[in-house]
Amino acid sequence: MPKYHNYSKALDHKIFRVISEAAEALSVDAYVIGGFVRDHILERGEPKDIDIVAIGSGIELAKKVSELLPDKPKVQVFKNFGTAMLRSEDHEIEFVGARMESYRSDSRKPIVEDGSLEDDQNRRDFTINALALKLNKDGFGDLLDPFNGYDDLKQRIIRTPLDPDITYSDDPLRMYRAIRFASQLNFMIEAESLKAIKRNKDRIKIISKERILDELNKILLSDKPSKGLALLFKTGLLKKILPELTALQGIDEKDGQKHKDNFWHTLEVVDNISENTNDLWLRWAALLHDIGKAPTKKFHKKIGWTFHGHEFVGAKMVFKLFKRLRLPLNDKMKFVQKMVLLSSRPIAIVDDNVTDSAVRRLVFDAGDHIEDLMILCEADITTKNPKRFKKYHSNFKKVREKIEEVEERDHIRNFQPPVSGEEIMTTFGIKPSREVGIIKDAIKEAILEGEIPNQYEPARDYMLKKGKDLGLKVPQE
């Protein structure tokens, strides 16, 4: 295929004709560049974000485009960056003047000067993102590909346009972007580029945690996150951001007894769960579900390797990790904590002799997230033994059936006590006190243990009995 193939069909949307008309009116050359071109060639659907480069003022081009559009969309101007943005229908279009960049060693923010299209393509992170389609009438749709990015797309290769050491040192975020694209697109990072990432990994200290987190989340949301996570590990970048996770890597042996490599097991779990959910926070829970195993690992001569209490320790570690990475310290964090804390509970109730009480407590503790917990636990099955794999899944099917049966009968999910604290105080003529809490907890425990059904009358009778035991004045019926 010729290097300068024409892709005018990629530009069928009317917005490109309007940009072309605006460029002609201002006598500037204009190009659509980057992700739009890449994703069209890869047939990944029509991207909603469009990047336009003008050989001249991108801001003036944006204003002219707005004038020509029927709805006259508002143009947001970012003078400090020399860019402008507008929204038209379902597209977000960013305009920038072609520029050349140079960097200082202590910052990823470039020193920017006006430049040519070639200068602008030189500053791009990867060859596959340096592809440009001409928007002017003369040559509309022509592909400008100075670094053979088209060939790299077809061969599924991530490569930098210039020396990778310079590219990654100038802007270390590009190392994460390389791995993110490899993960999202299922591409290979070119060998020299991969070596350069390893050499420049210490440069990430100049990148904000927010920017790193954005790339990490995108890796986690890819179809097979293990590809990106494994590359982060092999290049040394993962240890710098998630040492709790890399601490799981390795297999220790004592007295001929080994434990599995919990790091690579975790990556399998994340891949497994990604086949069943796009929920970012459930994927985070899968990533962190075993982080408590490194600090709790012990060897006992009689029973071998143990990780007692790793769920409790791991749940506590989640808060510190979220705080350090500037992940949200809200209900998202609490959800991940809950999933880590409960991650082994369903396994404990697969026995045919398990009591309804154990199932009720599991449903009570998991609440609305019981299904998320079951998805996590099923993803945690990574055995390669077909018989064991089938057995584990069969056991979890039984657990689901028990949960459904108990929930239908006892209505424990999102449990609300049948008797309120206000009713307890009114009944016994007492004010808010320790006794109110004792009675409420006693009713809850009685329901969970199956001593009384989750209904008002039995709960009220139990309240009266418990109040009498506490020496409270029981009203005469």
TrEMBL record:
Residues 30-159 form the Poly A polymerase head domain. Pfam families: HD, PolyA_pol, PolyA_pol_RNAbd. Residues 186-247 form the tRNA nucleotidyltransferase/poly(A) polymerase RNA and SrmB- binding domain. One of its GO terms (molecular function) is nucleotidyltransferase activity. GO terms for biological process: tRNA processing. Its cofactor is Mg(2+). Keywords: Magnesium, Metal-binding, Nucleotide-binding, Nucleotidyltransferase, RNA-binding, Transferase, tRNA processing. The keyword Ribonucleoprotein does not apply. NCBIfam families: HDIG (TIGR00277). Belongs to the tRNA nucleotidyltransferase/poly(A) polymerase family. This is CCA tRNA nucleotidyltransferase.
